[in-house]
TrEMBL record, chain A:
This is Probable membrane transporter protein. One of its GO terms (cellular component) is plasma membrane. Belongs to the 4-toluene sulfonate uptake permease (TSUP) (TC 2.A.102) family. Its main location: membrane. It is a multi-pass membrane protein. The chain crosses the membrane at residues 12-39, 51-71, 83-101, 113-138, 212-234, 240-260, 272-291. InterPro entries: TM_pro_TauE-like, TSUP/Inactive_protease-like. Pfam families: TauE (PF01925). It is found in: Cell membrane; Membrane. It comes from Alloyangia pacifica. It comes from the Bacteria. Keywords: Cell membrane, Membrane, Transmembrane, Transmembrane helix.
TrEMBL record, chain B:
InterPro entries: CHP02186-rel_TM. Residues 1-18 form the signal peptide. The chain crosses the membrane at residues 226-247. This is Transmembrane protein. Keywords: Membrane, Signal, Transmembrane, Transmembrane helix.
Length: 301, 253
């Protein structure tokens, strides 16, 4: 059954879209990631214009993040104060990101920017995850877990604030910067940025792991909502119909994924996710390096 | 009855022409609905004449359907630092978003190059490009690429010998439009030719547009983008909250 998307102006198979949303939902349930970094490139492969894929991806993440953050509020694992500082940075970043996006759209290079961002970030994150989970498997066999408390340069900066839930007394500048850079990526890549923010919160800010996911989800809701609004008002590229089908598949998939995830080993899960991320990255990279079959491209004005 | 009579008088009052087209379209509008997956348009008609059928040279029919004209930028990629990036651009002033040509005979027997130039029948003639930037020497390559890409997308098509012509009087053809066509007024032209010379032209229009929900969403997104954005957020929020509430209810029995 085909469905015509009013903003993307293409007709796609509705079951393929539901399946895509569902698959990403399963992954997000299993691994606790938003899945935006997979949904957007997969939409490219399906022939959705990149600008629409990015803007609609942001809209879809709003839904999945709200669904996720409610559970975290119940468990009181959201650091609201930290979330608000991250958000302040995030909103500035999102505005900056949309501005860069529109600038490059005018220059005809927005496709390249989006694809490059994906190749670089998926490559880095996928590679790191892969190595880390291999190490973890190696160590769990030896049976010697290692723990380390991080005290970096971030603790020497001014404008210190107390974050009770996280048990931290640090400067507001690093969280602002983390929020800002994730905001830029969110606007350009159509992702929530959890896959960058979570490691940054743990390793850079030294936040306890239990509040990291909830806090990042809290911040992501507002940054992606803001990004959606910016794209909708400046580019007219948010496709409600596309978002709705993806969300529908996503929320069902997420519940299945959560059930699945509890049955698998954490290391195996992480390796599987890392391989998937690297696979998508590899396909995108190949498209950039291999001589395309058609070197001309049409852009309607 | 009176209308018909008036019409007959009108036809009779037209300057006497040897052969003329009376055209019928299977539809005068194409609606883009939620399940739109392309459309076929049947174009049929008859040749009205006041003289005996002249069989040599034979009568030929050319049917064209032209979508709204719009400017297009054609980018050419080049390898820079190992990766392929958009390097050079040519702005094409106006190109039809859709263009189909169907003929009753092979192209070179249907129309001469001079007549093609005058009536802008073939695809290259339907595209208007004034000039390329000074540093691009091969601007034709960009126009050719435009035609090639749109042919692959099914937006430009040349279908020789696809017009069925019977007894030099009745003709019909079917033009298929893909799902990715744009909205607007589509100009349909029927040319009658003899020995490559156009002897009669008939024009009519097909309206292509989104309807219903598709129309409403598209209009809202362009005219009230803030409301549209808020609506999409509201739907997302509702779906996210609803899903977690629903599954919690299922789990707790």
């Amino acid at each position: 059954m085909q469905i015509y998307l009013p903003i993307a102006e293409v007709s796609v198979n509705v079951f393929l879209l539901l399946g895509l949303g569902g698959m990403v939902g399963v992954l997000s349930g299993m691994f606790g990631v938003g899945g935006g970094f997979l949904i957007t490139p997969l939409l490219f492969f399906m022939g959705i214009p990149p600008a629409v894929a990015v803007a609609t991806g942001a809209n879809q993440i709003v839904a999945s993040s709200i669904s996720g953050v409610l559970a975290h509020f119940k468990r009181k694992t959201v650091d609201l104060r930290m979330g608000l500082v991250l958000l302040a940075g995030g909103l500035i970043g999102a505005a900056l990101g949309v501005w860069i996006f529109n600038l490059l759209k005018g220059l005809g290079q927005v496709d390249l920017l989006v694809r490059l961002c994906y190749v670089v970030f998926l490559g880095i994150i996928g590679g790191l995850m892969f190595i880390e989970s291999l190490n973890a498997i190696f160590k769990s066999r030896k049976g010697a877990p290692r723990k380390r408390r991080h005290h970096g340069w971030v603790h020497g900066l001014p404008f210190k604030m107390r974050f009770r839930t996280s048990g931290l007394y640090i400067s507001a500048i690093p969280p602002m910067l983390v929020g800002l850079s994730v905001g830029v990526l969110s606007a350009i890549m159509g992702v929530g940025g959890g896959f960058i923010m979570v490691p940054a919160m743990i390793y850079l800010l030294g936040m306890p792991t239990k509040v990291v996911v909830g806090t990042s989800l809290f911040q992501i809701i507002f940054v992606t909502a803001f990004t959606t609004l910016l794209h909708a008002t400046t580019n007219y590229t948010v496709d409600i119909m596309l978002a709705l089908v993806l969300i529908l598949g996503g929320v069902i998939g997420a519940q299945i994924g959560t059930a699945f995830g509890t049955r698998l080993k954490a290391e195996q899960l992480r390796i599987a996710l890392a391989s998937l991320v690297l696979l998508v990255c590899g396909k995108l990279a190949l498209d950039l390096f291999i001589t395309p079959s058609e070197i001309y491209e049409l852009v309607a004005r | 009855m009176r209308v018909l009579a008036a019409l007959l008088i009108l036809i009779a009052a037209l300057p006497a022409r040897a052969e003329e087209v009376v055209l019928g379209l299977s539809r005068t509008n194409v609606s883009i609905t939620t399940d739109f997956d392309g459309s076929d348009i049947l174009i049929f008609g008859a040749v009205k004449r006041e003289v005996a059928i002249q069989s040599d040279p034979p009568l030929q029919v050319i049917v064209t359907v032209e979508g709204p004209l719009e400017p297009v930028t054609v980018w050419r990629k080049a390898r820079k630092l190992g990766i392929w990036v958009n390097a050079e651009a040519v702005e094409i002033d106006s190109a039809p978003s859709f263009y189909a040509v169907a003929t009753s005979a092979p192209w070179n027997q249907s129309i001469t190059a001079v007549e093609d130039l005058r009536h802008k029948v073939s695809i290259p003639r339907a595209i208007r490009s004034v000039g390329a930037p000074m540093d691009i020497m091969d601007s034709e390559a960009f126009t050719e690429a435009l035609i090639r890409v749109r042919e692959q997308q099914g937006l430009y098509r040349v279908e020789e010998e696809s017009v069925e012509l019977q007894e030099s009087t009745l003709f019909d053809t079917s033009i298929s439009m893909p799902a990715n066509i744009s909205e607007g007024r589509y100009l349909t032209r029927v040319f009658l030719t003899r020995a490559g010379k156009v002897i009669s032209v008939h024009e009519s229009e097909i309206q292509v547009g989104k309807v219903g929900l598709e129309r409403w969403l598209f209009t809202l997104s362009r005219q009230m983008p803030l409301a549209y954005g808020l609506l999409s957020l509201a739907i997302a929020a509702l779906a996210g909250w609803g899903a977690s509430a629903l599954f919690r209810a299922i789990r707790s029995g």
